[in-house]
């Protein structure tokens, strides 16, 4: 078919599949080029042309052969392309918001960790000298209860009790500073 005429459009509007195939082949290349000029995406352009022709087939009974089909087709393609671009922009904005929220979460997590560390150091400073030393020997030096007891000339049970009280005090202070 060299050109699309009223007769072809009339047959399409009545459900003639062969006429629709002729119509599709006539407009396929220019429609694809037009979509590609708007979208800059080969695959999406092909899909869009096919989607628009499917819609035309579904609404074939509304085709008026006397009206300018060329204008109708390219208006449909333009609208479809703009809708697609709007969806892509919205999707991009949603992705950007997600990334920003994730970044905010990590910054908040870092801030939270920093507050806990500062709180912990402040709480350690409130311990008695003896408890602070027992805690330091246990955590920083990695000494056992027995080794601390021997070094400080106190019983192993005293070391254990002082560590338990020190850790409980730290937990209370750090939780109080962070949540209260």
Count of DSSP H/I helices: 7
Helix share, percent: over 70%
Mean pLDDT: 85
Q: Which runs of at least 5 residues are low in confidence (pLDDT < 50)? A: none
Element order: H for helix, E for strand = HHHHHHH
Secondary structural class = mainly alpha
Rg from Cα = 38 Å
Gross geometry: rod-shaped
In terms of DSSP E residues, the strand content is under 5%
Number of strands: 0
End-to-end C-alpha gap:
80 Å
Q: Tell me about the largest β-sheet.
A: none
Structure description:
The chain has 180 residues and is mainly alpha-helical. The chain has seven helices and no strands. The chain has helices spanning 6-13, 17-39, 42-58, 69-125, 129-139, 145-152, 156-179. α3 (42-58) crosses α4 (69-125) and α4 (69-125) packs across α7 (156-179). The relative contact order is 0.07.
